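Justification of computing resources. Each target in the renewal requires a structure prediction run like the one illustrated here; the chain below, 130 residues long, is used simply to show the kind of job we budget for.
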Amino acid sequence: MAFLCSWRCVVLLLCIYLLCVVAVYSKDDPKKKDIRDYNDADMARLLEQWEKDDDIEEGDLPEHRRSPPPIDFSKVDPSKPEELLKISKKGRTLMVFATVSGDPTEKETEELTGLWQGSLFNANFDVQRY
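Resulting structure tokens:
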């Protein structure tokens, strides 16, 4: 009787051990999916995993992830808000609005803003019109 009880304990402990091993390995390996079955969330998660261990230089980071340069407020004149904007937005994307004077038609406005965009592009400014 004692022999049968000890075997049951051994089998029970072995089963518990195997369940623990299976649980640990199943957490490390996520369910394998076919690449054709990936959705946008899976692709974003995969990109985050790739970038997590990557050493990306500061200049290669997207603009919203770069640390802003320090601003020396002792050199800023508080009476000139344009100067503060110029210092704080240096090297960043800036949205600018322009109003065409007169009463041009939509076609004339598109033509004029196209000229502005071309001129700014030639001066190495990436400009988008909306």
